[in-house]
Design brief:
GNAT_dom; GNAT family N-acetyltransferase; Acyl_CoA_acyltransferase; Aminopeptidase; alpha+beta; acyltransferase activity, transferring groups other than amino-acyl groups; 7 strands; 4 helices; seven-stranded mixed beta sheet
């Protein structure tokens, strides 16, 4: 069973040891950088992704101060656990967590490197639709909640 957990003094060091596959290394900032960033910008939520009692991934998301929408800024599954459906299950939990928040927005945005084909397939599988390339070079994708959410 996949679940999201807080990152705290008991698991932060394990989180920074998670790794992507070699060919994915340039797609995302390190988990150490993301954890540090969340301490400077407290509106960012950082979550560890567990399968049972085993840490398998990391995510960071929050409301962007520029556009007022939720953004998933970081999402990764450790190289040892990719290809098992953990990413899709975890992404669904993140969407649910945002939907259940008091400050839920109508949409969730994320950006990824255009050459990240594995990410593209994952995001599309949970309902993200590509909208085009951002000025900073990432592919932007939007998840829209059904009306009445």
């Amino acid at each position: 069973m996949i679940c999201l957990r807080l990152i705290d003094q008991n698991n932060w060091e394990e989180c920074i040891k998670l790794k992507l596959k070699q060919e994915q290394q340039g797609f995302i900032a390190s988990n150490l950088y993301s954890i540090a960033e969340s301490k400077i910008f407290p509106h960012l939520k950082i979550k560890s992704i567990y399968f049972s009692e085993e840490l398998v991934g990391f995510a960071m998301y929050g409301i962007d101060s520029d556009d007022g929408n939720y953004w998933i800024y970081r999402f990764m599954i450790d190289e040892r656990f990719q290809g098992r459906g953990f990413g899709k299950s975890a992404m669904k939990l993140i969407i649910q967590d945002i939907a259940n928040s008091n400050d839920c927005t109508d949409v969730i945005w994320l950006g990824y490197q255009p050459e990240n084909e594995q990410g593209r397939r994952l995001y599309a599988s949970v309902g993200f639709e590509e909208v085009g390339i951002a000025p900073w070079g990432e592919m932007l994708a939007k998840f829209s909640f059904p009306s009445g959410n």
